[in-house]
Amino acid sequence: MINLTIAKMEQEHVDVVAELEKTCFSTPWTVENLKDALENETSYFFVALNDDKVIGYVGVSVISDSCFINNIAVFPEYRKQGVGKALMKIAILTADAMGTGFISLEVRESNYAAINLYRKLGFEVMGLRKDFYRLPREHALIMTKNF
């Protein structure tokens, strides 16, 4: 059983989040990318903590009346325990609180677990980005939740 807390991502979390990126993505964000994102006034990043240990994170960018999820990731051993759902909920709450009209993301079309989660949270498939991902090459579904 995990003791889940969602908190604002701080510089002290960056190294672990960079490791999480390497674990989950074929083209991970670097420590420098993450540090730059934290300093960007249009970006909002949150970590999921089990006690004080980072087990997941989400980052969103709010631009005008739009919100985009940059990345969401959970360490494999903590998946299917509500961590991704909690991170998505904070992303949705952030977008809504900032007065955006929608929140959107891209997801590999083969990532059925994520797609099912997003659908349960009110996201709908709005389009396709052909060959969006590399390593392996794959299309991305564009999923959006309107407010």
Protein model, in words:
The structure is a single chain. The chain is globular, with a radius of gyration of 14 Å. β6 and β7 form a beta hairpin. The chain contains four helices and seven strands. The model has no long low-confidence stretch (mean pLDDT 96). The chain has a single domain (4-146), classed as Gcn5-related N-acetyltransferase (GNAT) (Aminopeptidase, 3-Layer(aba) Sandwich). The protein has a seven-stranded mixed beta sheet, sandwiched between helices. 30% of the residues lie in helices and 40% in strands. It is of the alpha+beta class and 147 residues long.
Quick recap of the structure?
The chain is an alpha+beta fold and 147 residues long. The chain has helices spanning 14-24, 31-39, 83-97, 112-120, and strands at 4-8, 43-50, 53-63, 66-74, 102-108, 124-133, 138-146.
SSE inventory with pairings:
Elements (H helix, E strand, L loop, with lengths): L3 E5 L5 H11 L6 H9 L3 E8 L2 E11 L2 E9 L8 H15 L4 E7 L3 H9 L3 E10 L4 E9 L1
Parallel strand pairs: 4-5
Antiparallel strand pairs: 1-2, 2-3, 3-4, 5-7, 6-7
